[in-house]
Amino acid sequence: MLKRKKVQAFIIIGILLLMLYGKNLIERQSFRSISSTFTEVYNDRLVVEGYIFKISEKLFKIQKLVDHCDLDYDYSKVVNEISQHEKEILSLVGEFEATNLTEQEATYLTDFKKIIETDLNIKSYNLLYTDSSGVNKEQVKIYDQKISRAQQDLDNLSKIQLEEGEKLISKAKVLINRSQIWAQFEVALLIILVIVMFLLLFRKSADQKDMF
């Protein structure tokens, strides 16, 4: 009878140890998931928001050049300057495309890229200005509309960063809360393990005293 109880106690201890081991495996996986989530927040959301800000700045410079806002500015090389800004924008778009895009992001980014590559690809300065007629207001208006659409794409992309960032942070909070629950579970298992071992040792000592 005594031997049977000892075997049962050892089985219980073994089960508890296996549960602790399983809990530690789950905990490690949870920490990896948390780390991956925060990495994603940084690489695919915060860094991308930086891309959007830089692209927006360059788009604003293009609009200023198209609109001839600065009367003191030398516009003789305006087409080359616009082209250079567009190359820099497309380089940033390429880095953006290399991140983990949602379906909506891919749609807005494709539309934005098309506007830069096709709609704002100004081949000749005469499309914007001629000595005889001055600023081509109709053509400038068309370019401004294209730039406004491109900026709207950027605004939508920026909103997505905020929404997706909030989702990732919520996911991280769930993982952290789950880790806290597992930590409490571990403490409970350790307490049970200590009690079982104490009872095992106490009974063993009591049995040895009874023998004498």
Please summarize what this structure is.
By secondary structure, the chain is mainly alpha-helical. It is 84% helix and 2% strand. The protein has a single domain, classed as f41 fragment of flagellin, N-terminal domain (Up-down Bundle).
Describe this structure in words.
The protein has 212 residues and is mainly α. It has one domain (2-211): f41 fragment of flagellin, N-terminal domain (Up-down Bundle). The protein is 84% helix and 2% strand. The protein is built from four helices and two strands; from the N terminus they run αααββα. Strands 1-2 form a two-stranded antiparallel sheet. The model has no long low-confidence stretch (mean pLDDT 80). It comes from Algoriphagus aquatilis. Keywords: Membrane, Transmembrane, Transmembrane helix. This is MCP four helix bundle domain-containing protein.
